[in-house]
Every structure is written in C-alpha cells, then in structure tokens.
Amino acid sequence: MNIFLKIEETLQKQLPFVAYRKPNTSVLKGRFQKNNNLITSINYSESGFIFAPFDSSEKAIIIPEEQSDFYQEEITLNNNFIDDATYTADSSSEENHIQLVKKGVKAIKNKLFKKVVLSRKEKVEVSNFNLIQTFQKLLYNYPTAFVYVWYHPKVGLWLGATPEILVSIQNNQFTTMSLAGTQIYNGTTNVIWQPKEIEEQQFVTDYIIDRLSEICSEITTSETETIKAGNLLHIRTVIHGNLTTDCSTLINTLHPTPAVCGLPLMASKQFITNNENYSRNFYTGFLGELNLNTNKTISSELFVNLRCMEVENNTISIYVGGGITKDSDPTKEWEETTAKTITMKKVL
C-alpha cells in the first residue's frame, strides 16, 4: 500500500503512526502501530521509533518495532500542490519575546549563565488544512532535512523538517554535531559570521566534547562549516567517537544540548522553565529510529525536533527559538525567530 494512503487510513482509525524521510534520501519510511496504547520508553532500551520531549524528566513515547507494521517506498514529488489553505498569524508575541530576550541578556551579564536558548510558540489559524499535502510540501521543500509526520490519538499530531542530528550510533561508533548560529540564506553559503554566532557555536562544541570525553574515546571533530537548512544558514561541527558505555547513557549525556537549552545546562534550563511561560512539549526534544537491528548492526539515528509544528484541528502551533548570548540584540533575535517560522508557514 502507498504510504500516503496508509497515513490517511491509520489517521481515520485513530491509531499511532510515524512517517519520515532521512536527509538527502528519497526513501519514505512508515511505522504504524497495531493498537492505540500509549507506550513509553524505559531508559531507551526498546527498538522502534522514539519521540521524546524537551524536558528529559518526562517520558519519551515509543512506537515499538514488535507492535507495529513497517513500510518503505521510493518517492518522487513534483511541485504541483494546490495552495487552497489560507492562514492568519498571531502577531501579538513580538513585544513579549523582545522582553524575554532582554531578560536573558541581563541574566548573562549578571553571570547566571553564559548562554540561554529562548523560544516561543506562534499560533496560526488555517482554513482547509490538508495533512497529506502539507507533509508532501515539507518533503519537497526540505530535501536535506529529516522530515516527519507523527501522530498518537492520546498525544496529538506533529510535523517537522529538522536540520540537526542529535546522534547517530552504529554498534559502538557514534556521530553527533554542534549546530548553532543563524543567517538567512541569500544564494550562497560563503558568508561572514559575526563574533556572537561564532562564540555561540563554539560554546556548543566545547560543551559536547567535554561531556562526551567522560564516556567516549577517540573523539574527533571536523572543520567548522556553513550549512544550508531550508531558507537559513547555520554553523556546524561534526563530532565522531567510540562509545565506551551504553546507548542510554550517551543519549542522556547529549540531551538537551546547549543548542536548545544553554550553558551551564541546569541554570539555563531553570531560566527557561521560569520565564518562557509555555510548555515546549516535544519542541527541542528528539525523535528517530532507536536500536534497530539491521544486518547484525544495532543502529540508532536521532534528530533534534526543530522547525516543527503541532496541529490541533485548524490551529497550527509553530515553535521557534534562538540562542542568546551577552551580545544578542533583542530585536534581531525576534527577526531570527520570524525567519524560522517561514520554514513551516511555507507549507501551510
């Protein structure tokens, strides 16, 4: 059966499912749960598809390999979508976000932490929302991203196109990345980065290497590079190593990273909890394949849940944020979040 038809059929039956395509591939995969049980992960020891929230103290949801049907197919998409949906955006949050960023900068200057990632949720009212068409638009527009649609009748419906790997593990070898800094793409990746963005990305790299050195060996890093993700550019460093402990310890060590939380971790996370005034839910959590056994190789490939939206009937909640340092300009930070909403609004 065609996966898009399977999505429609499973949604009608109100059963959990996920459909996804990995970056730079043309294979669409789907995992469709046979019952509507809400199954949570115990220490990331299961096999299947994991969907984890930002708050690591909350349970991650798993669609287990043994309780689901798996489909995959090659897809070819053309840009022949009918744009019959219209939307109206909530524009009331600009002043709130600017004040939040000012508060964050002040806390950094008062040495409460070095960096904090502050986010917001923008609600968009949509007429004639079409799930399959929206998902296909995401797949078409963001070929270099991890693109997904995830549904559970007891949780909700989420879609996204994320550029960031949390970690990829094959047996005892892993790859992760440090991704930070944002510019709007204007036709070239040959751009100049400001000290604020360079510093922010280095914070993330140093933190990850420091944390991994306690549980990993032979850690190597790539040269820093500029990458394109949708209409945006970011600074990236790729990090490799050998795992000397289990998968669960590695995930718990990496999540949440400073790229979605801040530095030091606990102080910045507490500031987020106290000041963002909304729940991130699964935004800046992670998702992906967990402990799959393929050709005698146990592999996991997990992505940070960025550039995502939650769908409730015709109300779309778009989640966006940005890294704040002592040199952050609150107005520019607002503009950065606005640029990031374009990724999602482009497909509505």
From TrEMBL:
Arranged from A to Z, the UniProt key words for this protein are:
Isomerase
Where's the Chorismate-utilising enzyme C-terminal domain? 94-340
The family database entries (InterPro entries) matched by this protein are listed as: ADC_synthase, Chorismate_C, IsoChor_synthase
Q: Which Pfam families match?
A: Chorismate_bind
Q: Which reaction does it catalyse?
A: chorismate = isochorismate
Q: What is its EC number?
A: 5.4.4.2
Q: Name one GO molecular function term.
A: isochorismate synthase activity
Q: Does the keyword Isomerase apply?
A: yes
Membrane spanning stretches: none
The UniProt entry, under PANTHER family, shows: ISOCHORISMATE SYNTHASE ENTC
Q: What is this protein called?
A: isochorismate synthase
Q: What is the lineage of its organism?
A: Bacteria, Pseudomonadati, Bacteroidota, Flavobacteriia, Flavobacteriales
